[in-house]
TrEMBL record:
Listed name of the protein: DUF1501 domain-containing protein
Species name: Gemmata obscuriglobus
InterPro entries: Alkaline_phosphatase_core_sf (IPR017850), DUF1501 (IPR010869), TAT_signal (IPR006311)
Superkingdom in the source lineage: Bacteria
PROSITE patterns from the UniProt entry: TAT
Amino acid sequence: MPPHTLPRRGFLKIGALGLGGLTLPNLLRAEANAGTRTPHKSVILIYLVGGPPHQDMFDLKPDAPKEIAGPWKPIPTNVTGVQICEAFPLLARNMDKLAIVRSLVGNQADHDAIQVYNGHNPKKPTPPGGWPQFGSTVAKLQGPVHPSVPSYVSLCYTCTHGPYNEPGPGFLGQSLAPFRAMGRTREDMTLRGVDVSQLADRKTLLKQFDDMRRDADTSGSVKAMDAFTEQAFGLLTSSKMAEALDISREPVKVIDRYGTGDPKVFMDSNGAPRVPQSLLMARRLVEAGARVVTLNYSKWDWHGGMNAEGRKNNSIFLREEEDFPVFDKCVSALVEDLHDRGLDKDCTVVIMGEFGRTPKISAALGRDHWPNVNCALLAGGGMKLGQVIGSTDRIAGEAVSRPVTFGELFATLYHNLGIDADKVTLPDFTGRPQYLVEDSGAPIKELI
């Protein structure tokens, strides 16, 4: 295939306007209102690939035996009585802008990201077509804010381990799949051939958009579309999306504040890259009009080499010492940035993995999978922050107060977007109405 030919498969995805809810009626409706700038609600969902160790990050147990407590010590935060890991000094000073859920229950036990992206346990019965991921549902219900910015944008990299990847739009169909800006599917989207390093070069980025327009027109593809689809195609490839993805427009000090990583290095080969700049790009996208942005970050499936003894015995590289400071820097930068830019009331941030980790450190000097309890970090969204919700027992193995379900967590995200998960339903392939979340559709009452 010539280098500048738009693949038919990729073009059909665009021609069908299957990018995060960019249906033609929604596009034209949004275009009619394009002259007005109104605030919109949004969610940035950050998936910590592989399941982070909750008891080494936000639920430390310093009084437990050392084979439970691990090497890290708790430090005070700027909220009285709340402590987190000493490796997170920047997050500690922003605790008043955060909420920690220490008692997330109902986790599945395998490496399967589906529950993180849609709140549904994959082991339970699913409707025909499967549950749609959160962003697809929002795109279906609310449509785009701006005609040239998809409602749902995925910054997720494609992992070689399939269960780490986003599950897709489920019974909503491919027209509600996200606009994918990263990973192996990028050849099927408007930014084909552009990776994170190229996004720093605005000229290269804009050239990709211009080339796509010319190539499509030369091949006759644009002429083959009807007038309305051609109009929508032009809106989709406008400069607004290109500018949102061009982080070189940010001051150098802002980029440095978040930090940068190599998008070509997939952690432990099958995880996601550790790229703090994705968080900055997510903030730019919600500012541009995206309602939901998802991203996957690093790999947290650490089964060994997690303490001082492991370093002495030269077991495996101590990933916590490597990952924690980078995570501390980029997440605190995002939280502070949202407040500085007046987005903290409108943009919700949620960070979690697929399960927690075992209380006891294993013989391999690591922690294994633990579905009994999990931890989530939230910010923004106009929520009541500066608090910890729920608690675990003395070894961080079970929730002992205020267990929080995935249904409650996702109902909170929907609530912050103005969607009542207790009332709204969507029809599956058979036409049967399906509620958006499992169990109760009530949001976490402590946050609302």
